[in-house]
Specification:
- The protein contains nine helices and no strands.
- It is an all-alpha fold.
- The chain has one domain.
- Helix 2 packs antiparallel against helix 3.
- The N terminus is likely disordered.
């Protein structure tokens, strides 16, 4: 018989979860913003000499640089949707490797999945699952970038990477009393063989 002590610990705030679920993407956004503040003034000061082609290239480069952080944040928003969905699946069905298989090939999705598992007490199992499939911290680029780079130009990639639909969680974690003990109970139930 397991002795359960209820601890009234609330789940992490949404902002914290949003920032951690997309930590790599937020870091990329900061780097891109710094690059914009350094490079755009240099490009803006470039004299085109009245050439329409150079004028077009100048403003194309500026527009491209300004769009980069927008895409990073759209990706971060989509990873947050993954985080919420995976957290619900783990909470409702327990730890199951099948939950993590679809996110194996993307670092950002692995980060979101790991955070979901970590908040529910399965962070080590999740990290071990990714490591057993050969993924380490330095595997940053999604697998398809090397195996099928043309995938970048498909509507499916754009929809799932930048425009994932909003996921409404099925569980309101802030209303669960004894959140930590419930997680411990689920971990113990998963660990017991029978």
């Amino acid at each position: 018989m397991m002795n359960i002590t209820l601890v009234d610990r609330r789940p992490p705030a949404k902002l914290y979860s949003y920032l951690v679920a997309g930590k790599l993407l937020h870091l990329i956004t900061v780097i891109e913003l710094i690059a914009i503040f350094v490079i755009v003034p240099l490009i803006s000061g470039f004299d085109t000499g009245g050439s329409l082609l150079l004028w077009g290239l100048k403003y194309y480069a500026i527009g491209f640089l300004i769009s980069l952080p927008v895409f990073s944040q759209l990706d971060a928003r989509s990873r947050f949707q993954n985080y919420k969905q995976i957290k619900d699946q783990i909470f409702l069905y327990g730890y199951d490797q099948r939950i993590f298989r679809p996110v194996l090939k993307s670092r950002c999705q692995r980060d979101a999945a790991w955070l979901s598992a970590q908040e529910l007490g399965f962070g080590d199992k999740c990290r071990d699952f990714f490591a057993n499939h050969g993924y380490r911290w330095y595997h940053i680029f999604p697998d398809f970038v090397f195996s099928k780079p043309q995938f970048l130009f498909t509507a499916y990639f754009w929809r799932t990477t930048f425009f994932s639909p909003r996921y409404t969680p099925k569980v309101d974690y802030s209303q669960i009393s004894g959140y930590e003990s419930l997680i411990t109970e689920r971990q113990d139930a998963q660990a017991s063989p029978g």
